[in-house]
């Protein structure tokens, strides 16, 4: 696809061609746009609202103001509530905190996996008993 065709598709989809897409090298433009459109905007195995909440959590952890803004607003466009947006942010904080602690303490990986597998087995058994 030629640059003009890609830009036309972007304009049809987004209403404008954002500058950050205009600055991509022409050799990457079509593939980057196709990936963006098919993963970010299309319905996939993960509903769009959840993909955006995941994106928000990752953006917060990486401290990218561009991505945090994008994913927050996109989550809203796909129906996320303010409570869901806040929870995604808190989940990122929670995950980063435990990651920092476990890595700083050098908690044994094999022990961690074994303990979590025991926890998962217990929860599965409890769920099965409840049914």
TrEMBL record:
Q: State the Gene3D superfamilies in the record.
A: AhpD-like (1.20.1290.10)
Show where the Carboxymuconolactone decarboxylase-like domain sits.
33-104
Instruction: List the GO molecular function terms.
Output: peroxiredoxin activity
**Keyword tags:** Oxidoreductase, Peroxidase
What highest taxon heads this organism's lineage? Bacteria
Instruction: Give the Pfam families listed for this entry.
Output: CMD
Q: PANTHER family per the record?
A: ALKYL HYDROPEROXIDE REDUCTASE AHPD, BLR3452 PROTEIN
Q: What is this protein called?
A: AhpD dom: alkylhydroperoxidase AhpD family core domain
